[in-house]
Amino acid sequence: MDPERKVAAEEKMREWCVALPKVELHAHLNGSVRNSTLLELAKQLGDKGVIVFEDVKDVIMKNSRSPLECFKLFDLFHILTTDHDTVTRIAKEVVEDFAAENVVYLEIRTTPKNNAAKGMTKMSYINAVIKGLKAVEAVDVVLFDSNLRTNETLSCTPMIELDDDTKKKKIYVGLLLSIDRRETTSAALDTVNLAMEMKDQGVIGIDLSGNPVVGEWETYLPALQHAKELGIPITIHCGEVPNRKEIQAVLDFCPQRVGHVCCLNDEEWKQLKSITIPVEICLTSNVMTGGAPSLEMHHFADLFNAKHPLSLCTDDSGLFSTSLSNEYYLVAATFGLSKSELFQLAQDAVQFVFADGEVKKSLRRIFKVAEKRLMLPAEFAAPN
Ligand code: 6MZ
Q: In what residue span(s) does the Adenosine deaminase domain sit (predicted)?
């Protein structure tokens, strides 16, 4: 194909990936902040003399990150973002950004933070996040509770059908509370109890995340066990580094989903596949942090060929300068998946959401309507 036609075909494929309705199951709030917002916040703190803006600016704009740099950067992000108003602002913007690229269901995860200097408790932090979700105006945010009730009818108008500008798009949003690996057993238990307390306000699950070389599985196990007993769905970052003992413990614990699974050995792969725990795949993140040697050698291919349940995710779209549409595009460009395979991949993710019943039914309807438009043979497709 001549270079110009190739560029045009790539552009069309990118547009198709944006139009595809998508389900995002692994996105960290503070990793998904827009660079422009981070720079603005850094400038404000620079002006107050809290940080040196010029130093921070280069760090924020850098594209490639080592794992160590990532977690250092999160410390910086947290300095920039941890007061109630800022948390509210970034929650609003993050949902707007996902909705703008046709994410129809979003599970956003975040670590509830205590910050006495700002009068912040774990609960007030999550309330500030919820306030942000409710402040979104560009789209209707349906925040459902863990009993899967919503205040409004769930008969969602499939966004792909909308051609009337006066009607708004809709995005379903659920919150997962993250336990940070730096936390103590008692702090982790606080987070699980908070998830239980806020289950009627949009909190639908628990995540274990944080720097994978920090902390011990035994520290979080009582909290994760408690969540399991309470019936709260759990997802765990697994195998970001080759920690044999912990990978085994996570697989034995059998959470509802796992994230990453970069560094599993043959035996662990076998076990993962035999228990078919759905995997949250984060291509760009894994390559940028060294969890996968390259896109071409990413374990996505092995899991996909084995028909293992999986879902494409961004992890930290701000930190890694990606988007969910871009992750779908990368899968097509790297592994040669067809549009119908991509569509199936996006639609299959509905099975793994922590919502159930009516929400899943609505999502299936959205995909059904989208299929008619997105899967037309090229010769019948309406010209752009
Ligand atoms: C493990 C990660 C992560 O919670 O402040 N986080 N944990 N592996 C990753 N892969 C690169 N990316 C993000 O969002 C930022 C926090 O999410 C976790 C880290 O604990 C990070 O501090 P919140 O909203």
A: 21-364
**Ligand 1: which atom is nearest the Cα of residue 180?**
20
| 240 counts as catalytic | yes
**Are 143 and 126 spatial neighbours (Cβ–Cβ below 8 Å)?**
no
**Nearest atom, ligand 1, residue 182 CA:** 20
Closest by CA to 367, choosing from 334, 384, 345, is: 345
Same domain, 94 and 66: no
| Shared-domain flag, residues 42 and 98 | no
The residue among 90, 61, 85 whose CA lies nearest residue 73 is 61
Total-model pTM? 0.93
169 forms bridges with which residues in the sheet? 139
**Structurally, how many domains does the chain consist of?**
2
**368 belongs to a structural domain:** yes
On whether residue 262 sits in a domain, the answer given is yes
What is the span of the domain harbouring residue 291? 11-29+81-379
The one catalytic residue among 96, 240, 268, 280: 240
Written as tens digits, the pLDDT of the chain (384 aa) is 788 888 999 999 999 999 999 999 999 999 999 989 988 998 998 998 888 888 788 778 766 667 777 887 888 888 888 899 999 999 999 999 999 999 999 999 999 999 898 899 999 999 999 999 999 999 999 997 655 444 333 333 334 444 444 467 899 999 999 999 999 999 999 999 999 999 999 999 999 999 999 999 999 999 999 999 999 999 999 999 999 999 999 999 999 999 999 999 999 999 999 999 999 999 999 999 999 999 999 999 999 999 999 999 999 999 999 999 999 999 999 999 999 999 999 999 999 999 978 899 999 999 999 998 898 765 445 444
In a shared domain, residues 170 and 319: yes
Nearest CA to ligand 1 atom 22: 74
Bridge partners (DSSP) listed for residue 206:
177, 234
Question: From ligand 1's centre to the CA of 81, what distance in Å?
Answer: 14
Q: How far is the CA of 210 from the centre of ligand 1 (A)?
A: 5
Is residue 1 domain-resident? no
Q: Half-sphere exposure (CA, 13 Å, Cβ side) for 75?
A: 7
**What is d(CA 309, CA 296) in angstroms, rounded to the nearest whole number?**
20
Q: What are phi and psi of 188, to 5 degrees?
A: -65, -40
Tokens standing for residue 134: 């409710």
